[in-house]
Amino acid sequence: MEGEDEPSGRMIDDEIYTNGVGEEEKRTRPIISGEQLDVEAYAGLYTGRTKITRLLFIADHCENNQTMQLEALRMAYDEIKKGENTQRFRDVVQKIDGRLGPSYGMDAAWCDTVDRRAEQKKEKLENELNAYRTNLIKESIRMGYNDFGDFYYAHGHLGDAFKSYVRTRDYCTTSKHIIHMCMNAILVSIEMGQFTHVTSYVSKAEQSPDSLDPVTVAKLRCAAGLAHLEAKKYKLAARKFLETGPELGNHYNEVIAPQDVATYGGLCALASFDRSELKHKVIDNLNFRNFLELVPEVRELINDFYSSRYASCLDYLGNLKANLLLDIHLHDHVETLYDQIRHKALIQYTHPFVSVDLRMMANAFKTSVSGLEKELEALIADNQIQARIDSHNKILYARHADQRNATFQRVLQTGTEFDRDVRSMLLRANLIKHDFNLRASRKQ
Amino acid sequence: MDSVQALITQIQGLSSSAGDVSRLHSNLKQAEETIFSESARLFSALDQLDPSIHSLGYLYILEACSSGPLTKERAAALVLPISRFINACAVEQIRLAPEKFISVCKRFKDQVMLLEAPMRGVAPLLTAIRKLQTSSEHLTPLHPEFLLLCLLAKCYKTGLSVLHDDISEVDQPRDLFLYCYYGGMICIGQKRFSKALELLHNVVTAPMSTMNAIAVEAYKKYILVSLIHHGQFSTSLPKYTSSVAQRNLKNFCQPYIELANSYGTGKITELQTYVQTNKEKFESDNNLGLVEQVLASMYKRNIQRLTQTYLTLSLEDIANTVQLSSAKEAEMHVLQMIQDGEIYATINQKDGMVRFLEDPEQYKTCEMIEHIDSAIQRIMALSNKLTGW
Q: Which ranges carry the PCI domain (chain B) (predicted)?
């Protein structure tokens, strides 16, 4: 069966790698895994601004791990120096605080050169744009604003970049231009964290009359998924990520890596889908399988959940947690998603049984009986499990409400309420009538 | 002829038939001045009249006598004749002059209260109400007076008998407010919390054009009884409440609303501290007893919630979950609740375990069928009334 083959297959792969082979194989090793994050490999997945943002995020959030922090800061420094964002340069230098030696200190000369170059470029662009505007050639004006957008983006002025990109809208003539504008706007909005814009521009791009090429479609799905994730709509986010085609490849590395698609999609699906949807959309989904291959731990834990091997599933989750907390998009959702997955596991475990021995269940979930009892109590009170706990013998009994009695009770209660409400109503009506009579008689 | 004697003879003469009585009525109305001025002498001449035959005349004289300043001696003198009159009077005759009858009865109540013997007034006023009412759905101004006496005399059961009638005709809105407010208090005293809620709800949601103090006090009690009976309280008043009430009631009852919020958190200790800090406010409103009942109901609510999740539970665990101090106390609470019929359970003292049972009512007995049938009849009658409106 599938379950048996995969772990042994993975072990064999591991053995091959540990035999010391070249760069090629090393990079195909899973990067998002239970082991400590390899910062260099992780950063290699991304390009552009998001690489720097992610590296800085990791540096901020792993204060206890000096080496990882310094590694991240070093890579961030190198990356920033390749670009033109002097503000970020100053930030990263402050964070490094001289710990990486003199070659990673403040390079004021570089900052000045870059700033001066920026000023000149800005003037040039402005002049060009004004020239184009007087000439009223749509295409050139559009290109002009686009260049401005790129310029601001490179220098970290995200708000201005966004405005410039949006300005090109008035000068777009073909749907290709519109899509280009939307993609740029989405990119900047994701950086700024304004996911409402992301959603609106995604829908705008999808409404384009021409059919989009598969890569763009995949990119848009990812962006939409990210927007839903931020809005805590895990089910919708899962659906979007699962619909992303494998054509995405590395084309959207300035925002998201295929590993992320697998991780986000897998976890959200596990937390929000029911069993049939999980099987249909995740496990049997051939497209998504390509993504899952990149993060075998996520693949394993989904399979374990589906085949009710909860202890191992929860183990995988525990291992992944540390690394997931270093991800900029997922970190504030990790707790919620984990709770939801755990609750689903508990509910799924108790669902097919009439009675469950709490001791065996505690073993399966690797917790104590009293802790398990507390969790089950919360789920029962929330009406997610229909059962009652026999605390003396530590057994959970399924309980199915007696429909007949419940109906009688409801009927009698409705009758009493109707009685009471109608009488009050008649009383109030009489009072109002009396009031009118009183007023009428006073007028006379 | 001596005017007093003339009057007496007139009354004696013209009290036999309906036509005569109406003539007597107009004569008496014209002679009101005389009656008032000669009230003392007329009082002594009362024994010449028979209250059951000469009710109208008797009434006029009594009314004249009981008006004027109230002193203990006068009260003592008047109480007995008035109560005898109420018991004996003829219904048709007093219905000709209802305002006088009402005023006499109200004075009677004042006298009884002055003499600090409210019990003496309970039975007579009950008879008075029954005689004055045109139908059992008619609310007279005597109803609130009667209920007040019942409250003061602690004759709750008698008060309850009056509260069973459905009211739909009302003379004066103020009567209704007082009636419902006192009625609510009587029901609270008898622990009939659902009926109390109904009455207090009527006060709070009645149409009113300005705020009145009765509604404010009723709202305070409404909050407390709602917490005891339902375990929850929502500050949103139904749509048919007058706008005056909707805007202003909450401002007057702030401490109570905070109490309800604190109750909603489910933490006993918080509730207790809140009650402690605001003790004087509750005491000044005479609501401290109710507030203590609210506290007790919190334990009950928590234990009831446990019946939904557990089949058996040790007394220790109950004590811990509900924040009681010991298993013994938990046992006492559970025992009390089983006796009151609030939960269905059995206590196994050997193991210190409580086993929660389902409601044994199977809805299969004859009594239950009759109960449902009578409820259906009532509701059909009510619906007819509604459509007839």
A: 192-361
ipTM confidence:
0.81
* Chain A contact present for B309, CB below 8 A: yes
**The pTM is what?**
0.69
Tokens 């500050």 locate to B235
Question: Is there a domain that residue B351 lies in?
Answer: yes
Q: Over the stretch B288-306, which tens digit does the pLDDT of each residue have?
A: 888 888 888 888 888 888 8
Question: Which of B176, B311, B371 has its CB closest to that of A389?
Answer: B311
Q: B81 lies in a domain?
A: no
Structurally, how many domains does chain B consist of? 2
The answer to whether the CB atoms of A393 and B312 lie below 8 A apart is yes
Please report whether residue B121 resides in a domain: no
* B345 and B383 belong to one structural domain: no
Cβ neighbors of A81 (< 8 A, separation 6 or more) are A89, A107, A110
Q: What's the distance, CA A128 to chain centroid? A: 40
Mean per-residue pLDDT of chain A: 82
Here the CATH number for the domain that contains residue B332 is: 1.10.10.10
| Shared domain check, B338 and B320 | yes
* Residue A388 to residue B309, Cβ atoms within 8 A: yes
Least confident of A14-18, A313-317, B226-230: A14-18
Residue A412 · residue B368 · CB < 8 Å: no
Q: Which domain holds residue B371?
A: 363-388
Q: Pick from A300-304, B5-9, B318-322, B357-361 the range whose average pLDDT is largest.
A: A300-304
What distance in Å separates residue A393's CA from the closest CA in chain B? 8
Q: Answer yes or no: is B245 within a domain.
A: no
My answer on whether B318 and B348 are in the same domain is: yes
pLDDT for res A357:
92
